[in-house]
Structure formats: C-alpha cells, structure tokens
Amino acid sequence: MITFFVCLALLIVGFFTYGKLVERVFHIDDRQTPALAHPDGVDYVPMKTWRIFLIQLLNIAGLGPIYGALAGACWGPQVYLWIVFGTILGGGVHDFLSGMMSERHDGASISEIVGTYMGKVISFIMRVFSVVLLLLVGINFSVGPAALIGMLTPEVLNTSFWLAVIMIYYLLATFLPIDKIIGKIYPIFGICLIIMAAGIAGTLLLNPAYSSQMPELWNSLAVVHPTGLPKWAMMFVTVACGAISGFHATQSPMMARCMTSEKEGRKVFYGAMVAEGIIALIWACAGVTFYNGVGPLSEAISALGQGTVVYNISTTLMGPVGGVLAMIGVIACPITSGDTAFRSCRLTIADWFRIDQSKTSYRAALSIPLLAIGAFTAVALPFDILWRYFSWSNQTLAMVVLWTGAVFLHKFGFPPVCCFMAALPAAFMSAVSMTYILQAPEGFRLATSIAYPVGIVFALACLALFIFQTYVRSGKTAQPTAQGNS
User: Fold this and answer.
1) Are 10 and 254 in contact (CB under 8 A)?
2) Where are the domains of the chain?
3) pLDDT tens per residue, range 196-235
C-alpha cells in the first residue's frame, strides 16, 4: 500500500512541478490560437478547457493504461516505477510538446510537423507510419471493446454484432464535426472513466482483504516475468500508453485546433497524460493484488484473456452494479480512442494531400474507405498480433516525436538544458524501441546479449547525431524567434 501511495503522490506532484517547468521553458504566450484565428465548424472549433481535457483524456486513454498495465504488472510492482517516471519525464513531455508544436503550426498533424523539422524523407516515412499506426489503433480499439460488450449482453448480441455497431459509430465520429458527437459525449464518458478508476482504487484500499495483499516494491525487486520475458525492453513497450505513447502525438493536434489559449496546454496535454498514468497505476496494482501475485495474474491473462480479467476484477471489487459501471469506463476508453484514431487518420491524409475538410464530400471520400479497411482487417487478423505490432510502432513514433521536439526547441532558441528535456527521453526511447524489435518474438528474435548493446549503441548514436547537428554543425544555439519565444 505504501508503494502505491508514494507512486500516486509522485504523479500528482510531477504535474505541478515538472509539468510547470516544461511549460515555463516552452515560453507560452497570448498569441491567437488556430481555433480563434480561423474556426471552420468542423475541426477548428473553440471549446472550454475542462471539455478539451476530458476529450484529450479519452482520446489517449485506450486499452493501453488498462490492458497494457495489466500485462506490465506481470513483472511485479517494478512496473509502477516505469509508469511514474515514464509519465513525468517522458509521456508528459511528449504530449505537451506534440500538442503545443501543433498549436504553433496552425493545428498541423504530427507527420507534417516532423517533416518540417526532420526533413522531407522523414516526413514521407512519418506520413505512412502515422496512417498505418492510426489504422492499427482503430482496429485494435474496435475488437477489444466489442468483445467486452458481448460479455455483458445476451448471446445473440455477440462480438461480431457489436463490432459492426462500433464501426458504424466510428464512421459517424470520423465524419461529423468534432463538436457534434465527440464534444458532447466524451466529457460524460470521461467522468465515468475517472469514477471507475477511483472506485477500483478505493475498493482495493478500503477492503482489508485486498489492501493487505498489495505488494510493496522493496519486497518485489527480484520478481521476474513468469514466462521469462526480459524486463528490458519488453516491459516498457508492453505498458504502452500507460507511460508514454506516440499515438498521443496523433491525437494532440485535434485538441490543439480547439484551444482558445496557450495557457491551456499544460492542463490539457501534460495533465491528461498524468491522469492516464494514474489510471495505469491503479490497474497495474489491481491486477497483481486481485490475483495475489504475478504468476496467477499471468496465468489468468493467458487462460481467460485480458477482457475477462478486467471483467472479473471489476465485478468482484465493485459488485454487479459497480462492476457494470466500471466496465462502461473500460469500454469507453478504447472506443473513444478508436474513433479519434480514424478521425486523426483522416486529418493526416488530408494534411498530406492538402484536401479541404470543410467540404462534406471530401470528408466522406476519406472516411468511408478508411472504415472499410479497418472493418476488414479487424475480422481478418488476430487481436494479439495486431496489439504487439501496435505497441512497438507506438513507442517508435514516440521516439521520433521526442527527437522532433528537441530539434524544435533548439531551432527556436531554447537553451540546451531545455532541449535535453526532450532529447534525453528521446534517447531512452530509441534504446527501448531498437532493443525490443531485435529481441521480440514478432521481431528478429535475437539474444539479449546482442539486442541490449545494439539498442544502447543506437541510442547513443542518435544522441550524438542530435548534438552534432544542433550544437556543433549549426552553432551552439539558434536565435530566439517569435515562433518559439516571445
């Protein structure tokens, strides 16, 4: 219990301290935001801060902070450290920079921002990479909730039925103006999500039968994964969105198009990431506590599937009614990330080919084919394969976005200490991403004796290249401009 409270406190304190520091070094100002400069009634729609925060939270809080956290808990309470420090030093910085860079580039998609600062070749790669990742997210976040809803409804309303319903909803959410569906129902689901997390945490803490079983970090440092999976870098990728996620960078521009002040950035982007970290912490703790150990938890996930594990935890801890409410929150997470994944995919393609999205026919021409591809793939490919590839591509995108943020900060005159707030987590994620793909079953399956040193060398090479290109080749620092500093 002590470990859980300390980690929870660190996340909250991190928002008010490190988050404030990130905001300060970015030099926010009172410039006119894209939503006020040219509202179009479709994607550029001014909204209030609390509404944007709840939408951003649901956009980013898909299956990652629940499924990913449960899978990560199979390494024991050590995963709490990654959730906490990954969120504060990596995920929060990543989300804030991706959102604010978009805001200062007229709400541009992350692939266009990466192209601006990393070159045309990287821009093309990122465009393709982003579209594929967003499709994977939309597909993953349709099959998962369809299976969960199927568990709560009569047998005739099976997973296939709910998958069709979800895909129809995704089409509407992708196509219609952002304030028609997303702006109205997301805040409601956001409140449900928060209540769900609070309910699970409260039951664990207040029920002596569970609070006495909550593992402490100092008693679990020697815990290894039951199936022998290496902690580095498998655990970091498995947790996915619960600590840092490149997918968030594809979502932040949507809210950057709705903000009415730069001062909202820390609350919306950094704050939503911290909230997601708290949700991941709760579910990681719930998994290892409810099943009383990493071995039983891993066996339950393998035998029952993560959806059933979530259902069992929710209904047992909170009773039938509370369990259904908790499941609504769990189901809302992936659905409200899946629809905005398809929406963001539409916007990415539109930015790529300069297609005006204020016209109904143009939006339909992009939305319908995207959902058709998503529906076909969801039926054709197994969920576990899709999830593993999503997890790796997700963290690789986070790596690229953080390097882009570091270059952005340098280009607009921020001092080196500020640039390294992005460059150091970028180097860390470079090591994670390279090591994972070299050793993972879906990757090259190399021994850790090879994957570990290659991953570290790759990260150091990326960091050295960044230092050479910014502080050696182009001079120690750039001159401040109105874009970066005012």
Assistant:
1) no
2) 1-9+36-381
3) 888 899 999 999 999 999 999 888 888 889 988 899 989 9
